[in-house]
Amino acid sequence: MTQVEKLVKIIMPDLLRYLEMVESGEIIEKRIEKNNTFIQKECEGNNVLKKKSKPSIQTRLA
Q1: Is the pLDDT score of 25 beyond 60?
Q2: Taking the alpha carbons of 12, 17, 18, 22 in that order, is the dihedral positive or negative?
Q3: Residue 3 near residue 11 (C-beta atoms within 8 A)
Q4: 23-27 long-range CB contacts below 8 Å, 24 or more apart?
Q5: 8 with 15: CB under 8 angstroms?
Q6: Predicted pLDDT of residue 57
C-alpha cells in the first residue's frame, strides 16, 4: 500500500462524517450556537464596562 493510499484510508472516514454533518445542517447549527454564546458574552462584558465607566464631564458638572 502506498503512502497516499494509507493517508486516504486514515482521512476518508472523518471526511465522510464531516460531509454528512454539513448536509444535515449540524455544522451550521453548532456555529450559530457558538456565535450566539459569544455575542451574549460580549454584550454582558459591555454592560459591565458601562457600569464601571467613569461619569462623563457633564454629569460631574451638573
Answers
A1: yes
A2: positive
A3: no
A4: none
A5: no
A6: 56
pLDDT attached to residue 16: 94
Q: How confident is the model at residue 17 (pLDDT cuts 50, 70, 90)?
A: very high
Residues 24 and 37: their CA atoms lie apart, in Å, by: 22
Q: How many helices, marked H, and strands, marked E, lie in the chain?
A: 3, 0
Band of pLDDT at residue 20, cut at 50, 70 and 90: very high
Query: Nine-digit cell at 32?
Result: 450559530
SS3 (DSSP) at 54 = coil
d(CA 41, CA 49): 12
